[in-house]
Amino acid sequence: MKDRTILIGIDWGASTFRAWAFDEEGDVIGGISVPDGILTHSGDAMGRLKFHINEWLSEWPEVPIIACGGIGGTQGIHNTGHRPVPMMLADLPSHLVQSNGIHIVPGLKQASPPDVMRGEETQLFALEDPIGAVCIPGTHTKHVTVEHGQILGFTTEMTGELRALLLANGGLKTPEGVEQEFSEAIFREWVEYSLDTDDAASPFAVRAARMTGVLDPKYHETALTGLLIGADIAAHYDPGDELTLVADGAIMESYRLALDTLGAEFDECSAEEATQDGLFELAEEAGLIG
Predict the structure, then answer these.
(1) Cβ–Cβ contacts within 10 Å for residue 140, how many?
(2) What's the pTM value of the predicted model, to 2 decimals?
(3) Domains, the chain, ranges and CATH?
(4) How far apart are CA 104 and CA 67, in angstroms?
(5) For labelling, which of 39, 52, 190, 274 has a CA lying 20 to 30 Å from the CA of 21?
(6) 38 band by pLDDT with thresholds 50, 70 and 90
(7) CA–CA separation, 101 vs 137, rounded Å?
(8) What are the pLDDT digits (tens) for 187-235?
(9) Closest-CA residue to 34 (of 20, 56, 16)
(10) pLDDT (tens digit, 9 = 90+) per residue, 89-114?
(11) Which residues contact residue 108 at a Cβ distance below 8 angstroms, ignoring those fewer than 6 apart?
């Protein structure tokens, strides 16, 4: 792998450190993923980064390194700040910030209403001429408006974080001793409760439905997830809208079902692949590699 590697790409997020080795074609030929997030790690950020790279490669690489995510924030190795939107995606490579031999992709900021992103800008760079809306689900879901390669604005919804908090504490905590199951029919039903924004159900409706025997307790998490994601997409999209959905795994499936229930038209893109492609393409455009 060492002889074929021309670039190392890093995505250091809130909960996970990920890095990949790329060959000259932009293909990933090796990688590492460690549950050591930029917000949860202990000790010096640069020290932790060197530790993970050395554990993976046994030595510090001699090829260029490009990184995105929290590595460029206040708890990372260097605070890059944020570039303001509106902004042309094509301008992003010219704003890379070098620190400790690493080229860091800056985040983006919006003045009104106030908002910020780190990492998603790299995924957006990888999309093929995105026009219109882009939905990037996660702990903090991003809804981005892009036209002819220009990011016009974005909104962050705390849907994933709210779901985790509600299921862990308080009146909507997952029922103890009840093994949870997923039901597509129930998920869609509770998505629909949020789609009518004039008469949407509140999260308390999940508890009430369970207490009155309308909802089987084993579907508690399914119902609450459907309700919250339904509210998320109803706030940003209408039936027939066209958008790009950038996600992986279970969260991709959840937003896919919710958008289908709404009646939106959408293309799908892997979030991990978008990060990988974005890092490689940014490095190419910035002249870091061949």
Answers:
(1) 17
(2) 0.94
(3) 7-128+272-285 (3.30.420.300), 159-270 (3.30.420.310)
(4) 5
(5) 39
(6) confident
(7) 31
(8) 999 999 999 888 899 999 999 999 999 999 999 999 999 999 999 999 9
(9) 16
(10) 999 999 999 999 999 999 999 999 99
(11) 82, 83, 84, 85, 87, 116, 117, 120, 121, 151, 154
Which residue has 């390669």 as its token pair? Answer: 149
d(CA 279, CA 281) in angstroms, rounded, equals 6
Give me the mean pLDDT over the 151-170 stretch.
96
How is residue 265 written in tokens? Answer: 């038209």
pLDDT tier at 130, thresholds 50, 70, 90: low
Residues 161 and 140: beta-carbon distance below 8 Å: yes
d(CA 5, CA 27): 10
131: pLDDT strictly greater than 90: no
Q: Is the pLDDT of residue 39 over 90?
A: no
Q: What is the mean pLDDT of the chain?
A: 95
Report d(CA 108, CA 83) in Å as an integer: 5
Dist. CA 19–CA 66, nearest whole Å: 10
For 53, 187, 228, 271, the CA distances from 60, given in Å and listed in that order, are 7, 47, 44, 27
Q: Which of 280, 281, 237 is nearest to 259 (CA)?
A: 237
CA–CA–CA angle 122, 109, 268 (5° rounding): 40
Measured in Å, how far apart are the chain's first and last C-alpha atoms? 18
Give the single-character DSSP code of 18: E
Cis peptide before 113 (omega within 30 of 0): yes
